[in-house]
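Example A, followed by Example B.
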Amino acid sequence: MYKKLLVAGALALSTCLTGTVGFAADTANHQVITKNGEQAAVKGPTTIFNGNVIIEPLFNNIDDRNISGAYVTFEPGTHSSWHTHPKGQVLIVTEGQGLTQEWGQPIQVINPGDVIWCPPGVKHWHGAGYNTKMTHISLCEAVDGANVNWLEQVSDEQYHGK
């Protein structure tokens, strides 16, 4: 169920991980179409999310590129733990309103159409707004099989900007 669009660690954040489609190098000469609904959505693990998150894999490892993508939907008030990415991360907000924060910086509000680039090694979190759900596409690349380094949980005080 693709709507109007994190990640190796505990579960490689299922986004760039579970049941995702791998494209073999011999497909480089023609298009590959993954049909809507061919890949199972998974619930984000509570070890790295504080609430209900659904991850819908889109793709994984196109040819020799270790890049993957997923729709990630956060219910209101739900967010990721602090984390970093070895090759950075692109988020494209597709629905709702969300929040993101880089360590030591103020919380930023993100809306549909916003594109967030988080450089390699930058500690951050992202998730839904306080009263709104949010969906984004997550795109990230792996290094030595890992595309995320999960850190500590975001405290309630941090999430609320206190």
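Example B, a separate protein, is given below in the same form.
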Amino acid sequence: MERRLSLIDRLLADTQNALGTVFGAPSAERDNPAGDRADVVLDDAERRHAAGLMRINHVGEVCAQALYVGQAAVARDPQTRAALLAAASEETDHLAWCAERLAELDARPSLFNPLWYAGSYTIGVLAGLRGDGWNLGFVVETERQVEAHLHEHLEKLPAADLRSRAILEVMKEDEARHADKAEAQGARVLPQPVPTLMAAASNLMKSIAYRI
């Protein structure tokens, strides 16, 4: 039987998650996909470019954590809440892998991660309050957009950066599976202009996170 948490319990758990995601050192449950790939030496321009792309992907995982935790906090159906938290758990793997790759590239995460987390958590709560169908609809749209930008990054990465590529390939597979699962659970198709606004916000985030 699922333990029913009080409002205070949920707030404390969500606060702990936020602090761990933004300031902590998350550990992955699965092995890093880049584990057996050679870490070749990139020139300065290639390293900065790879780091910028991986910083964007790290921010994306910060946002995914916040979005799913916010949605789960107000989800009405226990099955929906469990699915959201399961997706968030896999996103923790992605977060850890991206952080490890940033460190290998002598780069740091985005300085705006606290802001990205707060904004995404707020969006998650607002989406969840609309009902579980809309909740799952946000999961589908989020994952499809993330899947698309991961595909773009795989094309833009320096050809020699096999370690970053290995990480993004597994992440892309996971995002597609999360979207498929949410659709199977009854996700509603988000009406315009919601997907367009989500894409615009994502593009703004990517342009900033690439550098800062």
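On Example B: The longest helix spans residues 44-74.
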